[in-house]
Amino acid sequence: MRLSQALKDKIMDLRLRDKLIYDGKITKEQVKQYLDSLSDDTSSFVEVGGAEKRTNDTDMEDDSTL
After folding, report:
1. What are the residue ranges spanned by the domains of the chain?
2. Residue 30: helix, strand or coil by DSSP?
3. How many CA atoms lie within 13 A of 17 on its CB side?
4. pTM for this entry
5. How far is CA 63 from CA 50, 52, 54, 59, in A?
């Protein structure tokens, strides 16, 4: 990854973006343009398992020792 692209991605990082908007370092329009420039990869996602939904508390370990 090129340094310029890495810095652009860092600026648009959700954890920093709102602060940078508040500080006036980027505008909401810049954020909108960045989000619009991202490609839509939803058609190529692959589901990789996940946590099963638990139906009762008996499946949980005893956390009273924590």
Report:
1. 1-38
2. helix
3. 13
4. 0.53
5. 22, 19, 16, 12
